[in-house]
Amino acid sequence: MGSIGKTTLAQLLYNNDQVKEHFNLKAWVCVSTEFLLLEFLLLEVTKSFLTAIGCRHTKDDSLDLLQRQPKESLVNKNFLLVLDDVWDVESFDWESWGSLRTPLRGAAQGSKILVTSRDESVAKTMRAVCTHPLGELNPLHCWSLFESLHFKIETPTHALSLNP
Q: In angstroms, rounded to a whole number, what is the distance separating the alpha carbons of residues 82 and 77?
């Protein structure tokens, strides 16, 4: 389901001060319908990740060459990689996911990949350890959240429940 706050929630997590302190490297990659061909998807996601962690690459790099670069940058460092809006599972299978993960395997323990998707089968394809389906907020909670953000009203954390 689209437009229920998956990206917004991921952004709040990504920009959280404790998260910033915990991870040595962070990268955000928007994976959307622009990546229609699998090879292009793997290449562009890898390039985006490299750019986000400060690795340089040239425009004519092959996927193999690109995937060798992060191993050096990730040694003894943990990372948070957000793959936002992954939903074209028909062209993204387990083998592709394995190829995407290859350069990340040299990172320190505690590294995480957070994926947002409107399709539950993405989690199955990626063999997710845990999933958190988002439900819709009822109108009262929506208004309360709007008020607290817009008018800077302090809302006790127990007052807003994100459970469906």
A: 16
